[in-house]
Amino acid sequence: MCRNIRPLFNFDPPATDQEIKDAALQFVRKLSGTTKPSKRNEVAFSHAVSSIAAAAQELLDSLETAQPPRNREEEAAKARARMAVRFS
Hints:
Order of helices and strands: EHHEH
Strand content: under 5%
Helix content: 55-70%
Strand order of the largest sheet: 1-2
C-alpha cells in the first residue's frame, strides 16, 4: 500500500490538495489495516485523513530547499526506467 505514497515536495507545479489527501488516505489505510472503514469507524477514519492531510500541507509549506524544482514528467520517466530494469 505505501508504495503509492510518492514524494510531494519540491515539484513544479507544486503538489495539489488532492495529491496530499490521497497520500494521507493511503497512510491512514496502512495504519488502520483496512481500505474501507466500518460504519462505526467512518468518522474517526475521515477525521484522521483530514488531520494528516493538514499536517502534510503544513509540512510541505514550511520545507525549504536550495535545489531547483523537479519536473514531474522527468521523475516519472526515471521511475519507469528503474521499473523496467527491476522487472526485466
